Amino acid sequence: MGGAEQNTRSIMRRLAAWALILAWGLTLSVRADDALVRATNLQADARDAARRQVPILIMYSSEHCHFCARVKREYLIPMHRDRAYRKRVIIREIDIGSTHPLTGFDGKPTTEGAFAAASKVFMVPTVKVYDTRGNETGEPLVGLLTPDYYFGYLEAVIDEGLRKVRAR
């Protein structure tokens, strides 16, 4: 085997390794983006929330919003995966520009975008917490705010929602 042939094989192995690394990385990023559950039936979610005595957190997002991706990746997806949070809150996502069908808290059919507009959500990311009847439990988190404190802000709105749901 000549030096040129060995060099070509070495380059091919490196390219194959980089292709595998890239494919693996893309798989991880796709899984991370898909980790939040899209809202499809808020009335059913509210029944589940009432049974579990927890609030419902809805993240309103947009497909091309990099701040939304960051909030999901750094805060909400880890919360969603954490068993302790599953005992404290139901987390859903709504795309404000989507025409995907959605059943509202009142049981009426709508779309994600129409529900967001009716909820007066026009900026993303927006996080709202609802009680088991579909009432907001406090002020929404609009924007990313200060990233260093964002986790604390999320904790505070979840705690407020829990207090209101469990006070009934």
Protein described:
Strand 4 (101-103) and strand 5 (109-111) form a beta hairpin. The longest helix has 31 residues, at 3-33. Helix content is 53%, strand content 16%. It folds into two domains: 1-34; 35-166, Glutaredoxin (3-Layer(aba) Sandwich), CATH 3.40.30. It has helices at 3-33, 42-52, 66-81, 83-86, 112-118, 147-166; strands at 37-38, 56-61, 90-95, 101-103, 109-111, 126-130, 141-142. The model is unreliable at 19-33 (pLDDT under 50).
Helix/strand structural class: alpha/beta
- What is the total tally of β strands? 7
Could you name the CATH topology of the largest domain? Glutaredoxin
What count of domains describes the coordinates?
A: 2
Main sheet properties: 5 strands, mixed
Mean of the pLDDT scores?
87
How would you spell out the order of helices and strands?
HEHEHHEEEHEEH
Binned, the helix content reads 40-55%
Write down the CATH class of the largest domain.
Alpha Beta
| Strand percentage | 15-25%
The rounded Rg comes to 21 Å
* Biggest sheet, spatial arrangement of strands: 1-3-2-6-7
Which helices and strands occur, and which strands form pairs?
Layout: H1 3-33, E1 37-38, H2 42-52, E2 56-61, H3 66-81, H4 83-86, E3 90-95, E4 101-103, E5 109-111, H5 112-118, E6 126-130, E7 141-142, H6 147-166
Parallel strand pairs: 1-3, 2-3
Antiparallel strand pairs: 2-6, 4-5, 6-7
Could you name the key traits of this structure?
two-stranded antiparallel ribbon; 168 residues; five-stranded mixed β-sheet; elongated; Glutaredoxin; alpha/beta
